[in-house]
Design a protein that fits this description.
GO terms for molecular function: alpha-galactosidase activity. The protein has 569 residues and is of the alpha+beta class. Helices cover 22% and strands 31% of the residues. An eight-stranded parallel β-sheet has the order 23-22-21-20-16-15-14-24. A seven-stranded antiparallel β-sheet has the order 3-4-13-10-9-6-7.
């Protein structure tokens, strides 16, 4: 039978990793070493491509760092490219019960790497193809949970990177953002009000987003680039920042890093040193391959920390440095050939300068620029915009947690309609339980019950921070969007339940079950006596009881948005 092979590599050599035969193109030699049970490291420095197949037995999903666990694609599916400014170099073929079938990660986090994976219809196999300039990759065929395989890739990248700046504790604590709540209608007085209210509820940082640099309210980027405050809204930026910091809140400021708008002085200054013009954004994308471009951007962004006293920066749109269809050739005067190398130099030099003033600098990046090559320059990474979509926020934050290594994972900003019941406010928060919540509603306009839900769940985030963010993360049923997620350490197991699924009670330690499902009947499987406490979405005690767990099922009613706490006697 003839098999259609759209990604034929031409002349190849072969090596083996366990039962898998790998075809390598362009490799004069290759070394394969087993580094753990079912895990191999393939080092083929001259290779430009690698390809192998695995049987599609019990396969349920194909996981990528951009799209999470979705359908199992056909062989003719479009390639997925990872580079410094977009994506992360890892994919995973997922089997029954979330088991890893084959996970592959590439060591090179800066240069572009192309992944193609898909089902060969004639054979029922799944073909993997990698393209890159020299390949060193880790191949996990262990059968462990896919989440552990992906996390293992992140641990490998971290070990390869060596010493990285420590992530400050504040990067893992709740945040208030002005974007959804205020959009461009920001000003010193309104920001200070929200900062005070947010601090009272349990937030530790405020991020002021787009609008601080312009009086224009058209939601475009024509006024980005010079990065000077709108003096009508912020007449004394340094004094304003000091007042917010006196509340005990850290202050971060938004920058659309690549953009220089048509109404900025810098627009004419850098004519000929831009990658392209974006008509729909009224702005050009600066070319970081020019030293004077990098120096200009560093000076503009450093002003926030050095002159105004900011604690950090929200650096937006790093992915827009990449040009769809391929980057243009560098113009005369460029000091490096690749755009991603220019971005790396820009972020490296900016980081070095700012840390001289703020050793515990806070820097936020977001999807899709999540490459481990950016870990030295950011300690916060946010799920991309998904307003009022709690399920999407859940999936994106869990996906990020698996591959983010040492970087604190943040939710997209949470907002809700003014008429939202308190139970649904809690559901929004539970959906991002395993990340850092960013809140973006007008806190002065919230009803008492909404504030009670917010205060209670932010308290849960803070009280159980270690388990939620540093414990072993086990998301279940990735093909269904993680309807149950668990984090555990030696102290506790915390389960978030988004569908009416049963919960296994651990043999030791406390168990917390956050119920975001509409069904209040939480089914527990375990053995032995225990004490149960149930609170509603506002944190009010509903009931306590002694529970005699047996080998069968026990049912405890937990209202939607509520929390069950089980402690062993």
């Amino acid at each position: 039978m003839q098999v259609w092979e759209p990604y034929a590599l031409g002349e190849t050599s072969t090596v083996r990793a366990g039962a898998i035969e790998l075809a390598l193109a362009g490799a004069d030699e290759a070394e394969v070493s087993q580094v753990a049970e079912g895990v191999w490291l393939v080092d083929a420095p001259g290779a430009t491509a690698a390809q192998w197949r695995v049987p599609c037995v019990g396969v349920s999903a194909f996981w990528t760092p951009i799209g999470g666990a979705r359908w199992v694609p056909p062989i003719w599916n479009a390639p997925l490219t990872s580079r410094l400014t977009a994506g992360a170099p890892v994919v995973s073929l997922v089997g029954a019960a979330g088991a890893n079938v084959c996970t592959v990660g590439v060591a090179e986090p800066v240069a572009p790497v192309s992944f193609t994976g898909g089902v060969i219809e004639e054979t029922g196999e799944f073909a993997f193809t990698l393209h890159g300039d020299g390949l060193r990759f880790r191949l996990d065929l262990s059968g462990q949970p896919f989440s552990a395989a992906v996390s293992g890739m992140a641990a490998w990248w971290q070990a390869e990177a060596g010493d990285l700046p420590l992530t400050p504790e504040r990067a893992r604590l709740p945040v208030y953002s002005t974007w959804y709540s205020m959009h461009q209608e920001v000003g010193a007085e309104s920001v200070e009000l929200q900062a005070r209210l947010a601090k009272e509820l349990g937030c530790e940082t405020i991020i002021v987003d787009d609008g601080w640099q312009t009086a224009d309210r058209a939601r475009g980027y024509a006024f980005c680039g010079d990065w000077e405050p709108n003096t009508t809204a912020f007449p004394d930026m340094s004094g304003h920042v000091a007042r917010v910091r006196e509340l005990g809140m850290a202050y971060m400021l938004w920058y659309a890093l690549p953009f220089v708008g048509k109404h900025n002085a810098a627009f004419e200054r850098f004519e000929g040193r831009c990658l392209r013009y974006l008509d729909h954004m009224d702005a050009a994308v600066l070319d970081p391959r020019h030293a004077e471009v990098r120096e200009f951007l560093i000076d503009r962004l450093a002003q926030a920390v050095e002159a105004w006293g900011m604690d950090g920066l929200k650096i937006d749109f790093v992915d827009r440095f990449a040009t769809p269809g391929g980057d243009p050739a560098p113009a005369e005067g460029a000091d490096c050939a690749e755009v991603d190398e220019g971005v790396r130099r820009l972020l490296r030099d900016l980081d070095a300068r700012l840390r001289r003033v703020r050793p515990e600098l806070l820097v936020e990046h977001r999807q899709p620029y999540t490459s481990p090559g950016l870990w030295p320059y950011a300690n916060m990474v946010r799920a991309t915009d998904c307003p009022l979509s709690p399920q999407e926020n859940r999936q994106r934050t869990v996906d990020l947690r698996l591959a983010a290594g040492p970087v604190a994972v943040h939710s997209d900003m949470l907002l809700w309609h003014p008429d939202e019941p308190a139970e649904q406010v809690a559901v929004h928060l539970i959906n991002v339980l395993f990340s850092v919540p960013q809140i973006s509603v007008d806190l002065a306009a919230q009803r008492p019950d909404q504030l009670a839900a917010l205060r209670f769940w932010l308290g849960v985030f803070r009280e159980h921070l270690g388990t939620l963010q540093s414990g072993t993360l086990e998301p279940e049923q990735p093909e269904h969007g993680y309807p149950l997620v668990r984090a555990s350490d030696e102290r506790a197991t915390i389960v978030a339940r988004y569908a009416p699924l049963p919960v296994e009670v651990p043999e030791s330690g406390d168990l917390l079950v956050a119920n975001a499902a509409g069904d209040p009947r939480v089914v527990l499987f375990g053995a032995g006596p225990a004490r149960v406490e149930v609170r509603d979405c506002r944190g009010s005690l509903v009931h306590t009881a002694q529970l005699a767990l047996d080998s069968g099922a026990s049912v405890v009613e937990v209202p939607t948005g509520g929390l069950l706490t089980l402690r062993r006697d």
